[in-house]
Amino acid sequence: QVQLVESGGGKVQAGTSLRFSCLFRGWTFQSYSLGWFRQAPGKAREGIACISSKDGSTTYGDSVKGRFTISRENGQNTVYLQMNNLSSDDTGVYFCAADGQNLCRDDGVLPNPDYFGQGTQVTVSP
Question: CB under 8 Å to 21, separation ≥6 — which residues?
Fold first, then answer.
């Protein structure tokens, strides 16, 4: 069984930066592709960033490309999301996810997650 635990949310002002961490509790972290999803108020959850198990390649959604960076530290069983130049459109609940079967899609989406974290809230004020 895998458990994902996010940390790093909070309230920030537009233009600032924030970094999320997600600890993977379980075995064979290296074999999982990992992703970050976001659910804005009143909207469906969307995938925004993904890092593949195979070669560590990354993909991003258009709304975050150039501002957000996903990375993984296999020795620490942790995946990160560095978010720069935040805007109020980035407000929402952020979830990390793990997929043991698939690689990332080109649009930043982890295709079929086996596990999600509990989510962490980010509120960006203008």
Answer: 6, 7, 8, 78, 79, 80
